[in-house]
Write a structure and sequence with these properties.
The protein is of the alpha/beta class. It is built from 19 helices and 26 strands. Strands 14, 18, 19, 20, 21, 23, 24, 25 and 26 form a 9-stranded mixed β-sheet that branches. Strands 10, 11, 12, 13, 15, 16, 17 and 22 form an 8-stranded mixed β-sheet that branches. The protein is globular.
Length: 690
């Protein structure tokens, strides 16, 4: 079979994933304000797509053009442009529809031309007291360097200041990072009508307040635009430079990186569009999009919770793992029995509390932890700093190369170092994406170690939004290997052996191939064989090829993938035994789980790694085998709920059609709510049994 037909381009698959997000905004069964927020998620995702995936493809096109080999990639670039254009048209139609539905619910997004007299008076006062101090126009002339000035993915107003003789252009930055983006105006019908205006439109209304007295003009117009930059950076290796210095330098590169997308207001004059294209150096390989007057829809993620209660999701209170309540501290609980937490259904408070206890417990000798993305006001960082002040030996591995978190992690590294924490960094080009900590505690005459191996970051904010597993264990079989991982991080080119952990780039590919091959052998010898995967992205062609071989040998394969999937199911003679679904719902599906039937004794791995070449071969990632039979069964039960979803599951296919899984005569099952109820029932059962 033609190799191309066996794989979907990852960029097109990514756009198909974002189309599923747009489906959630269109789903009338979702509360109205949540649908508006999904528009924001779609927009934020698309911004990141251009910064990373589109920018990388453009770079590859230009490199191959020099070698006269760019044909296929140029064709892919055009397919991407066409797909984005179609999705954006659907987005605009959906947004207008949702505005009408909001109005029917007495929530009205109004523009500067729809203000009542009282609202006009109120708005000018608001501008003077809250906005004016943040507005400094940039006058555009032949010497203005827009590329160095414009911030990535900020919205700007390009202002035409017109008199009888000439046109002056000025640039206004929308200060949405300094003020609320949605301003609730006084209502003409109190308690019923809730008018909202975007900060962009406040500036449009107050143009005279900004420019009058400084410029003579007959007319003044404003048009919105935004630019997206390439988010990649080069690490310029110099022997004398530390990684922190290199990352700081590379972030400066990103600030002035070349544009890859220009979005402008559809009715902007052609002369002004051409001026922007010239000033920004926009080429035929970049994306130029004529759109409506709003471009930073990612702000809609924070659309205010106003109006009737049914317009937002019903809260799901976080569940406690009551095992912790039976012991005087977290260490006693974990030593007695492994604990598995599943966020956001379980509270992240258990992990925060364990690290808080470790920071002052006189028996704790040392703490080691990796951080990749932490919350802005991280309680974990605070506990680590207090632990250092309390004389613990604390080592923190800070991943400075965590995309879009580099600046924050540089800040944390400096703060930790100032507190006396031993801070380590990854080698350039070898990101540390594992989610580990290791606490060493003296108990009687022994050193007992407590480990965390997870699928998600140590981040209080994302633990409320992302589904992720945390395994907390004192099992020596695991903790001694976690200790080896930290040794490996300090010496990444030294050979290390692992039995219960998969550690990229050390052994993950080899073990995954072996486990798939074992299922192939089982199937060929008449033994029931099955592979279950839950991952964010499946694009590594080596692993996909192995799954195709397993399918051809009769192995049943079920895959739940949130984002990119290059594997094509149901190809005759190649993948008839592979089913791929995707679930997009109120929580972001982030956990990675690998299951291998293993002749009736299932192996269940929780992992930080997706099946992407970078995660398997070029990052430090950790997957742990669940040794406790009850925890293995719990994960298998939760996976079954997801594979039986009849509400939010979509079938992935070669056409990227995103059709919902046919319900047939099965009952309605929305897996995220079913999982919450399942875990809540387990909690109640344990409470009653105690």
């Amino acid at each position: 079979m033609n190799q191309k037909k066996k794989y979907i381009d990852k960029e097109l698959s990514w756009l198909s994933f974002n189309e599923r997000v747009l489906q959630e905004a269109a789903d009338e069964n979702n509360p109205l304000i949540e649908r508006m927020r999904f528009l924001g998620i779609y927009s934020r995702n698309l911004d990141e797509f251009y910064k990373v995936h589109f920018a990388d493809l453009k770079r590859r096109v230009l490199i191959r053009k020099e070698q006269d080999l760019s044909g296929n990639l140029s064709s892919l670039l055009q397919k991407i442009q066409d797909k984005v254009l179609k999705n954006d048209q659907d987005f605009d139609c959906l947004y207008n529809k949702l505005l009408l539905e909001m109005a029917h619910n007495n929530i009205c997004l109004i523009n500067e031309q729809q203000l009542s007299t009282n609202q006009q008076i109120w708005l000018r006062k608001y501008f003077k007291n809250n906005l004016k101090q943040h507005i400094i126009p940039i006058i555009i002339n032949h010497t203005t360097n827009l590329i160095s000035f414009l911030k990535d993915d900020y919205t700007y107003l390009i202002v035409e200041i017109i008199n009888d003789y000439k046109i002056i252009y000025a640039l206004l930055e929308i200060p949405s990072d300094k003020v609320e983006h949605f301003i609730i105006l006084p209502s003409e019908i109190p308690h019923l009508h809730k008018p909202i205006i975007l900060v962009d439109n406040i500036l449009r209304y107050c143009l005279d307040d900004i420019f009058k007295g400084f410029f003579d003009y007959n007319r003044i117009n404003a048009y919105s635009m935004k630019m997206t930059r390439n988010a990649e950076y080069d690490l310029m290796m110099e022997m004398e430079s530390s990684l922190m210095e290199l990352m700081s330098s590379s972030l400066k590169q990103r600030l002035t990186a070349e544009p890859v997308r220009l979005v402008y207001q559809r009715d902007m004059p052609n002369k002004l569009v051409e001026l922007l294209r010239h000033k920004l150096g926009i080429s035929s390989y970049d994306s130029v999009v004529a759109s409506n007057r709003y471009h930073n829809f990612k702000d809609f993620i924070k659309f205010p919770s106003i109006g009737a209660i049914h317009l937002i999701n019903k809260p799901l209170p976080r569940l406690r793992n009551i095992w912790f309540d039976q012991f005087r501290n977290g260490f006693d609980a974990i030593r007695d029995h492994d604990v598995l937490l599943y966020y956001p259904y379980h509270t992240f408070e258990h992990v925060l509390e364990l690290l808080r206890q470790a920071s002052f417990d006189p028996n704790v000798l040392a703490i080691k932890i990796n951080i990749y993305r932490v919350a802005k006001d991280s309680r974990i960082i605070n506990s680590i700093i207090y632990a250092a002040h309390n004389g613990k030996k604390v080592t923190v591995v800070v991943e400075l190369q965590a995309r879009f978190n580099e600046e924050a992690n540089i800040y944390w590294a400096k703060r930790l170092t100032a507190a006396g924490v031993h801070v380590l960094f990854s080698a350039p080009g070898l990101k540390i994406h594992a989610k580990l900590f290791l606490i060493s505690r003296k108990e009687e005459d022994h050193i007992i170690r407590y480990a965390h191996i997870g699928t998600g970051n140590f981040n209080e904010k994302t633990a409320r939004l992302y589904t992720d597993y945390s395994l907390l264990t004192a099992d020596n079989r695991i903790t001694k290997e976690v200790k080896r991982v930290f040794n490996f991080i300090e010496n990444p080119y030294r050979s290390v052996n692992f039995e219960h952990l998969m550690v990229s780039p050390q052994n993950s590919r080899r073990i995954l191939y072996q486990l798939i091959d074992q299922e192939i052998i089982s199937s060929q010898t008449g033994i029931n064989a099955e592979i279950i995967l839950k991952i964010n992205n499946l694009v590594d062609r080596g692993l996909i090829s192995r799954l195709y071989a397993a399918s051809s040998a009769g192995v049943k394969i079920r895959v739940l993938v949130r984002g990119m999937c290059s594997l094509i199911p149901n190809i005759l003679g190649v993948s008839e035994n592979i089913q791929v679904i995707s679930i997009i719902d109120r929580f972001l599906e982030h956990a990675r789980v690998y299951v291998f039937q293993n002749k009736g004794d299932p192996l269940v791995y929780l992992s930080s790694a997706d099946w992407m070449t970078r995660n398997i071969d070029y990052r430090i990632e950790v997957a742990v085998s669940l040794l406790d039979p009850s925890l293995r069964q719990l994960v298998l039960d939760l996976l079954e709920l997801q594979f039986n979803d009849t509400v939010k599951a979509r079938l992935l296919d070669k056409d990227l059609s995103n059709h919902y899984v046919p319900r047939g005569n099965r009952r309605k099952l929305r897996s995220q709510l079913a999982i919450y109820n399942y875990l809540k029932a387990l909690q109640q059962e344990k409470i009653l049994s105690n």
